[in-house]
Amino acid sequence: MQESRVKRGRSRCPLRVIVSNEGRIDHRLKIFQSDVSPIIIFSTKRMPQKYQRALEKKATLHLSDTKNVDLAGMLQTLRNKYKVRTVACEGGPTLFRALLEQGLIDRLNLTIAPYMFGGAKAPTLTGVRQGFPARQRALFVERHAHHRRGVFSHLSNQASAPAPELGVSLRRGRRTSSPPQFGQTKFICPAQLAQ
To answer: What is the pLDDT of residue 173?
Structure first.
């Protein structure tokens, strides 16, 4: 699959993008120990100088003057500057909620695995146990597949969207030999990248 990416004029592996409002990212993290593909960091000028100096040696920094990263602007930068057409968001509930509130989620691939966990402090997709973003959008089931270790649902905000293949990683279409990690949720965003 890497050879196929190279033939299309892309890097061997997809770009790796980190989003952080405060920019307190440890430059010794495992992601920075590999040069498999470029790393791009979107943060704000609240990122402390010592972090900026350490990270600029390992990644391309995009720092905004705003309090929070402008997610729509970030996606536009990825599209215009880096020719990215599809983004797989593997972030946590805070990033997912922000993308959802701004209407930047096109597709949600949700894995329901046969494992029980929960309690009052169990995480949710949006990071909160009550309330839901004011800007809710209907998600339509594109495809629903059963696997011996779970159920994989592909949901989209467009009723007629083409269904993705099961077994295709959402990291910009890279094929994998198995479905996404069990219990893992991936988000595809946004519509304007696919245009």
So the answer is: 35
Residue 186: phi and psi, rounded to 5, are -125, 145
Both tokens of 59, joined, read: 């990644």
Q: Decide: residue 172, CB within 10 A, 0-12 exposed, 13-18 middle, 19+ buried.
A: middle
Whether residue 176 sits in one domain with residue 95: yes
**Range of 29's domain?**
1-69
The whole-chain average pLDDT of the chain stands at 74
pTM metric for this prediction: 0.65
CA 37/CA 34 separation, integer angstroms: 8
**Displacement of CA 150 from its chain's centroid (Å):** 22
Separation CA 145–CA 141 (nearest Å): 11
Q: Above pLDDT 90, what percent of the chain?
A: 34
